[in-house]
Amino acid sequence: MSKAKWWTIAAHEYSVHAKRKGFLLATFGTPLLLGAIFGAVIAFVAFGNQSNNLGVVDQAGITTQLPATVTITDTLRKDVDVIRFSDENLAKNALSNQEIDGYLVIPNDYLQTGALRGVAAEGNLNSDAQGRFKNYMQKALISHQAPLDSVRALEPISEVYNRKPNSNAEISEAQGVLLFFTPYIFGIFLFITVFSSSAYLMTALVEEKESRVMEILATSMRPFELMLGKIVGLGLVGLTQISIWVGTALLGFMIARANIDDLANLTLPTNVLLIGAIMFVPAYLMVAGALGAIGAGVSAVQEGQQFSGVVSLLMISPVWFMTLIIENPNGFLAVFLSIFPFTAPIVMMQRVALVSVPAWQLGLSVVVLVGMAIAMIWLSARIVRIGMLRYGKRLSWVDIRRALSLGGQHGE
Amino acid sequence: MAMLNIVDVKKSFAGTEAVRGVSFNVEPGELFGVLGPNGAGKTTTIRMILDILRPDSGSIEVLGGAMDEAKKNRIGYLPEERGLYRNLKVLDCMVYLATLKGLERNEARKRASDYLERVELGHVAQKKVSELSKGMQQKVQFGTTILHEPDIVIIDEPFEALDPVNTRMVKDLLFDIRREGRAVLMCTHQMHLIEEMCDRIVMFNRGEIVLNGTLRDVRRRFAPNAVWVEGHGSFDNLPGIESVQTENGQVQLNLQAGTSPQSVFQALASRSDTTVDRFEVAIPSLDDIFVRVVNGERGQ
């Protein structure tokens, strides 16, 4: 087999599809859009409530152990000084002179009631200022060695701890959210990439049949070379896309973790990503084989889209069973869907995030997926042989059966 | 060594015989015409030559042996059902298809540019294929067929959508290929072009070859033993004439067996009341032969 020809096709497919406006928009637009939303939130937090310094009027005498000016570092590392005023009038003057954005009055009975009074130009202390005061008050209470119940009054719920269903390891609320969403986010990345690359393959084959370029291709190489080139080229297109998405997501995660205190202890479920990475190539080959066979067998793009919709539904079907899978990640349904090749990538990532999946199930899932990928590529090569020069009408079941049993004489 | 040697090739589809024992060969430096009505088995035979289909029996030798992957690069094919990548630029499309025939990319680009200049399409090199007229696309398509300088060029209706000027351009390119000792196998329904260009022809009908030979031989087989005469005066009562037919001012003198055109010419020359403007041995047009063959006649 001439290596050059399939590689020429792969390079051509990559070059054509990676330059498509739709691909560029999806590949760079998605992370840009998400980045823009994320950045806007951060900017809003960081700059929207941009505050100068804050004041405190301590009538209860609990801040005496603290310096007159305490620098508070907030979650975005923006330093703000909290200045203690001996008298509320001084604080009012500072507020009216815009030296401070607001001040907090700690009344005499604070330790009993936990109630504080905030004063700001707009009437209410904004959430950013409240966060800083919370931080300041914790420092004050600790330095004052206040009774424990007062601390609890100030912060009735400090943190929620969750656990995995079958694990004693405690995970934080944020970590739980991360574990819940990671398989779905990466599952959707995988689905979109695998499916869109395979759909490109199907469309390219149908268009080549419609435009009759197929006749030239058929006389320049073997059908297997043609399919190999297209699958490799479009697979690389998909790999580029998912790499950019996953890379951007990981970069965003690392930036967020480094800059947001509440996320500092989060750990990415690398086992989920590993499963996704292992399953990406066979999942792509399986779907590309299926859609390639459809592309060779139908006579119009629209017709191909109808058939490919079935494959798409199969792949995305785990979303319908999400609740059942989460409730019982080792139940029959979850295990079955994590081994059934079309649903395996998404469901297995979900299960791995929730429980320790037995090694044999992991192995079986990958083996079945790889087996299905090989079967689909074989099937598509056979159907391409018989369908590549069939113009204007789709292959019948009889044709397909003949292709499978005879190994393919193509054309009319 | 024959460029193509096809011996007793048969092919059936679902019990229907599409090609029935076809044999012919194409020599180097030859422009070989393939004629026949639609569905006669021409395209199936070409697809078997190109190894898209495999014959049920018989043998096909291409460039001295069985077809293999390397030989695919030595063949240029312009199919009847043709097309290009409509959304690609003309030059990119030509370069891509030429690289699939084994040409190195830079060389393909150079040859494609030269070709476009030669066929007066240099100005559309950076345009999308879809922006070109049908005739322009046809010339681009023809270019992709010959860019890799194949030893055998197989072309199906190469002059479709071309005006007389562009037809002349493509003809010149085909004559160049012949002059270089390469071979052209051409299918077309435009009989006058076959008559003008081809050295030998085969004619298919219902899966069989019903005519095979040089144009001269084929025409002689269908020649009616008559002469065509134009002039003034009477053409009746000439010795050795069986009958006289007149159509559009042209008179056809049908000769009796054993009468030669030479003796009729001498008889006419000796008549003082008759002037002859034109005298020609009646040779049927290929068009005529085609219709007669399709209607079941096989010639003498």
Automatic annotation (TrEMBL), chain A:
Intracellular or extracellular location(s): Cell membrane
- The source's domain of life comes to Bacteria
Instruction: State the protein's name.
Output: ABC-2 type transport system permease protein
Which parts of the chain span the membrane according to its record? 23-47, 184-206, 227-253, 273-295, 307-326, 332-350, 362-381
Can you list the GO cellular component terms from the UniProt entry?
plasma membrane
- Signal peptide annotation: none
Q: Which InterPro entries match?
A: ABC-2_transporter_component (IPR051449), ABC2_TM (IPR013525)
ABC-2 type transporter transmembrane domain: which residues? Answer: 21-381
One GO MF annotation is:
ABC-type transporter activity
Organism for this UniProt entry: Herpetosiphon aurantiacus (strain ATCC 23779 / DSM 785 / 114-95)
> What are the UniProt keywords, alphabetically?
Cell membrane, Membrane, Transmembrane, Transmembrane helix
Topology versus the membrane:
Multi-pass membrane protein
Automatic annotation (TrEMBL), chain B:
Q: Please indicate if the UniProt record lists Lyase as a keyword.
A: no
Boundaries of every ABC transporter domain copy = 4-231
What are the entry keywords?
A: ATP-binding, Nucleotide-binding, Transport
SUPFAM superfamilies recorded: P-loop containing nucleoside triphosphate hydrolases
Name the domain of life: Bacteria
Listed Pfam families: ABC_tran, DrrA1-3_C
Which InterPro entries does the record associate with it? Answer: AAA+_ATPase, ABC_transporter-like_ATP-bd, ABC_transporter-like_CS, ABC_transporter_ATP-binding, DrrA1/2-like_C, P-loop_NTPase
Which Gene Ontology molecular function entries are recorded, alphabetically? ATP binding; ATP hydrolysis activity
User: PANTHER family, alphabetically?
Assistant: ABC TRANSPORTER ATP-BINDING PROTEIN, ABC TRANSPORTER ATP-BINDING PROTEIN NATA
Q: Which family does it belong to?
A: Belongs to the ABC transporter superfamily.
Q: What is this protein called?
A: ABC transporter related
